[in-house]
Amino acid sequence: MAEDSDLEKTESPSERRLEQAREEGQLARSRELNTFAVMMAGGAGLWLMGSSLNTSMVKLLHDGLSVTPELAFKPELLLPHLFDLATSALLAFAPLLLLLLVVALFAPMLLDGWVFSTKALQPNFSRMNPFSGIARMFSSHGLIELGKALAKALLIGGIATWVIWKNREVYLLLSTEAPKVAIPHLATMMWSCFLAIMGALAIIAMIDVPFQLYEHHKKLKMTKEEVRQEAKESEGNPEVKGRIRSMQREMARRRMMAAIPTADVVVTNPTHFSVALKYSEKGMRAPIVVAKGTHLMAARIREVATEHNIPILEAPPLARALYKHCELEQSIPEALYNAVAQVLAYVYQLRNYKKLGGAAPELPHELPVPDGMDPGALDNSPA
Asked: Which GO terms describe its biological process (predicted)?
């Protein structure tokens, strides 16, 4: 049962899944919204350009039906004359056609933005399979599209029939009117019918847009297994990441152990903590920590220090404070300057004693570790 639930598409699409769908040209699109936008643009264009179009068409009709003696006796002039008429008609309708082209291109972007994808242009021969086409026709999506088409035809056809039936007496009276009066009258009634049909298309678009968004979201839903796999791909396989972290820790440990011979002193707890310090008057503002560790690592630091004759000083509060508040290859905090200075002073005296002899230096006692810096004083850590 758990495996079945993992294979069901119950999870919302991730941002990566949505981005991949956009790259493949899979966007939410509503044909009804596009149809409504183009029809409205065409109606508005005719309304705004109707006067100029009417003048141009009347002139074209006059020029097309007029036959001059020159055209009558020179047939070779008919083709250029027809070309001129066609060019004039194209120029007259060019603004309207340009408006429709712009709206047809930008109307789809109202729903889910714009994207250019070459994947959508690549040939897909599986779509040429007639059996797949028949299966799509009788699929749930195909039946839904058929139902939408029938509903749209019934709604638009019903509204158009209602408008015509309501104004049937007015239409019959058009035959009794003079042409100059009948033509504007007919245009007014056609505009009323157009507005009624556009109202129906607006209703259809308002229903279709949420439906297309829902269908697009549903189609891109993911299974729980896909979500887990995507998380692994985006964040990295946990096993691989764990291996990388382990290798990084090992490399850091090796660098740290290699830096111990360069230290000036190792401060210990004496068994639980070990911190190796280094200081040089050239290029260092304050002493830095080159190695630190607890328990087994602390013991290993002491072993390496002994092998390379690095002084080891037992100072439990200072060792705990250094381990708690210092990072590798970073300077010690100012609060510990005084205590570390006494430790380094002892180390320098010890070096001089080994070289020159004389009185052995005294071990520093009760190093000044400020209150709050020693975690052992707060949580009773082992000394």
From this structure: bacterial-type flagellum assembly; protein secretion
- Per-residue pLDDT of 215-234, as tens digits, reads 888 888 888 877 777 777 66
* Alpha carbon distance 217, 158 (integer Å): 33
Q: How many residues does the chain have?
A: 383
The DSSP letter of residue 264 is S
Give the H or E element holding residue 126.
none
Residue 370: cis peptide before it, omega within 30 degrees of 0: no
Rounded to whole angstroms, how far apart are CA atoms 27 and 216? 7
Instruction: Check: pTM over 0.70? Answer yes or no.
Output: no
Supply 1's token pair: 């049962």
CA 176 vs. chain centroid, Å, equals 65
Kindly report, residue by residue over 41-61, the tens digit of the pLDDT: 888 888 888 778 878 887 887
Full set of structural domains in the chain with CATH: 261-356 (3.40.1690.10)
Q: How far apart are the first and last CA of the chain?
A: 56
State CA 18 to chain mean position distance: 8
The neighbour count for residue 15, using CB atoms within 10 Å, is 8
E strand segments, the chain = 9-11, 222-223, 265-268, 273-278, 288-294, 312-314
